[in-house]
Amino acid sequence: MRGSGGDRSARRDTSADELEATYRGYAASGRKRRSWSASNRGNVEIRAELLDAVLELGKKPLAGRGEILDIGCGSGWLLAEFAARGVERRRLHGVDLIEARVAAARERVPGVDVRLADDRSLQFQGGQFELITMLTTLSSAPSRESLAVALREARRVLSPSGVILCYEPWLPNPFNRQTTTISTKTLSAFLGPTSDSRRLTGFPPLARRLGPLAPRLYPALARLVPTHRVTVHRPGDALRSRG
């Protein structure tokens, strides 16, 4: 691992404090709570679309026997979806920087290994995972240096035959300055060229206002104004091609 234990702890605590402050701000706003609620019909459509993409693009490793890591797992919704589809819980792992979300994930998916951890210093063996998911994790990185370290760590713990799925905004959101866009060029610099790339997620500020019309209108919104991108990376393929 990089640096001393004291350095890693201080770095994790600083980032956790910043994230927790951001989420406290969201929680203090009734409008934000309604907008970000998992029961918001626009959010239901956003998540369903993303889940379909993850299940399709990660189909092979999900159906295999290798271990799976969700970096920035939050309250464990994706891990719960994997488990509900028959993925053995002993294969599933999650990490998050905020203690309350780790506790929520552990309660939501008992039997799954969920840890409080910084994505820049993962306490896993090199080459351990066949599938790694990083969903709107990198766009919250406090700096470009932090982003680079997180990507190197993800690649370190990925097996030579493994797959990384990244889901990040490619268009800026004028209503949320807390996140930044992540280019495929940046991802490819650390993870190798994208083997697949799909744009999705209809403009969230509008999607969350669709109410009961969301199931009918969201698909058109996602086609017309996709703000995010899912990219697939297989770093081992790039190394083999150069060899």
Structure characteristics:
243 residues; alpha/beta; seven-stranded mixed β-sheet; 11 helices; globular; disordered N terminus
Brief overview:
This protein is α/β, with parallel strands linked by helices. The protein contains 11 helices and 7 strands. It has helices at residues 5-28, 30-36, 41-57, 59-63, 77-84, 99-108, 144-157, 184-191, 204-207, 214-224, 235-242; strands at 67-71, 92-96, 113-116, 129-135, 158-169, 194-202, 226-233.
Described by strand count, sense and barrel closure, the largest sheet is:
7 strands, mixed
CA(first)-CA(last) distance:
27 Å
Strand content: 15-25%
* Rg, Å, rounded: 17 Å
Gross CATH architecture = 3-Layer(aba) Sandwich
Q: How many domains is the backbone divided into? A: 1
Name the CATH superfamily assignment: Vaccinia Virus protein VP39
The total strand number stands at 7
Overall form: globular
What is the average of the pLDDT values?
A: 87
Range of helix content: 40-55%
Give the helices and strands as they follow along the chain.
HHHHEHEHEEHEHEHHEH
CATH fold field value: Rossmann fold
Strand order, largest beta sheet: 3-2-1-4-5-7-6
CATH class wording? Alpha Beta
> Could you say which structural class the secondary elements and strand pairing correspond to?
alpha/beta
Low-confidence stretches: 1-13
Give an overview of the whole structure.
The protein is of the alpha/beta class. The chain is built from eleven helices and seven strands. It has helices at 5-28, 30-36, 41-57, 59-63, 77-84, 99-108, 144-157, 184-191, 204-207, 214-224, 235-242; strands spanning 67-71, 92-96, 113-116, 129-135, 158-169, 194-202, 226-233. Strands 3-2-1-4-5-7-6 form a seven-stranded mixed beta sheet. β4, α7 and β5 (158-169) form a beta-alpha-beta unit. α3 (41-57) packs across α10. The chain is globular, with a radius of gyration of 17 Å. It starts with a helix and ends with a helix.
